[in-house]
Structure formats: C-alpha cells, structure tokens
C-alpha cells in the first residue's frame, strides 16, 4: 500500500542497514530519561474521557424516532427557532454535505471517539424498510439548517451550525417547518437514535511502554500523538506510523524477542524519539 510518505523497503532487503534488530528498551535508554505519568498525561486533555451530551435536551421533542417511522429512516426533532446556535455534542470533525433530499442543509459531525449505546434500540420499522442500527454512534447528523460552520475540527460545545427550515433543494431557506432534525450514524452509515447514546462516556486508546517512558495516544477520529519526556506531544503522521510505534512498544513487552525494523522504519522511529514528526 502506498503511503504519502512512501512504502518502507522490504525487511528482506539486506543492503546496508535496511535490516536490523532493534530492542525498544535500548533505544529508550539512550534517548529518554525517567518520567512521571502525570507529566505526560497532563498535556493530553484533548484526548481525555468525554461524555456525549445532548445540547437540546431543554427543548421538548416534537418528533420522536417512532414518529418518523412512516416517512423517514429515523431521527429526533426539536422546535428550535430560526438561527438557533447548534453546539457540538462532543468533539469531532464537521463535514458539510450540502442540500440533501428533503433534509435541507445537512452536516455530519464525525466524532473523535465512538460512543456506545446507553438505552435499548428501537424495534420500530422505519419507513417500511429498516430498523435502528445497533451502534456505536460515530457521527451526529444535523438537518434543515439555516447555515453551517466551515468544515474542520470542533471541540465539545463549539457552535457547528444554526437551525433553520431548509428542505428540498430549490425550496429555499424556508422550504419546511422551522426546527432541528438530528440523528446518529454507525460506522456503516446506518441511522441510530442519537438520544439513546447520550450520557455514554468513552476515551481513546492510550498505550504506554513497560517502563512508563513513552505514551502512545490515538483517537478513532484519525489523530494521534506520541508523548515523550521533555519533548511534549509529537503528532503521528499516519496510521502506518501509529502501527509502527505500537510494534516498538510490543517489542518492549516481549523480553528476549527483539523486533525487526528496516532502515526507513528505523529513521522514522529515531525521528519520533527525537521529538520530530517525520
């Protein structure tokens, strides 16, 4: 597979130093000093446990999941007035989808970390074709918006759009009733009832070396960091690099079974351990 940084040479290539055995402990002994866990985890607040909130819980529900059964694939409606700000229920990356069918301006907040179900799923057949998916919820969908904030990452509580009455393309900003429609989606794009995941708390994967000298942090939203003493957080360039650093940690956990890395991988590792994103 071709990565933006290029594929590493084959481990079978013995030219120069392209094939070497590297023990993680010896590398850390040369590059890092002792560290207290709090010193590393302190700067990682953006990746701490987060609870999925419902910013609209103060409004009555004017259209429940079951109410949508006859005409929709599912959702919840709230009677928000025109141009009411829409806070992000959790941290995530906003993607504007444009005008979608009768849903008007639609955007999806792709959550940094999936959230598990809190309440049982509905058994109601939606629009005669499908039931609510199991989850977990990975995205929150907003429809009928008057306007949408620019694509990008937003923290929990940040404004991601404004409620409205947009509906089918061509019907204009007031093509439907003024309200907010919201629903969730699972990893396959199937709809889930957003309200039944509210209150779920989750946190990203955090892996540490056996001696506590290095922490590897990855969010399912596609961002990750290597935490190093004296160097803070170093951004991880790709999932390929994340898996490489996991191999480094795994070699530390398995004494007497050193991992094999090729020259390109060793260069990447050395760069990260020096606090530089390759």
Note down, in words, how this protein is organized.
The protein has 278 residues and is of the alpha+beta class. The protein has 2 domains: 20-48 and 203-273, no CATH class; 50-200, Glucose Permease (Domain IIA) (Distorted Sandwich), CATH 2.70.70. Helix content is 14%, strand content 29%. It has helices at residues 24-31, 37-41, 239-253, 263-273, and strands at 20-22, 50-51, 76-78, 85-87, 92-99, 105-115, 137-148, 152-154, 159-163, 180-185, 191-192, 201-202, 205-208, 215-219, 223-228, 232-235, 259-261. A hairpin with a 5-residue loop joins β10 (180-185) and β11.
Task: List strands and helices in order, with pairings.
Blueprint: E1 20-22, H1 24-31, H2 37-41, E2 50-51, E3 76-78, E4 85-87, E5 92-99, E6 105-115, E7 137-148, E8 152-154, E9 159-163, E10 180-185, E11 191-192, E12 201-202, E13 205-208, E14 215-219, E15 223-228, E16 232-235, H3 239-253, E17 259-261, H4 263-273
Which terms would index this structure?
alpha+beta, four-stranded antiparallel sheet, Dup_hybrid_motif, nine-stranded antiparallel sheet, 278 residues, single chain, 2 domains, elongated, TAT_signal
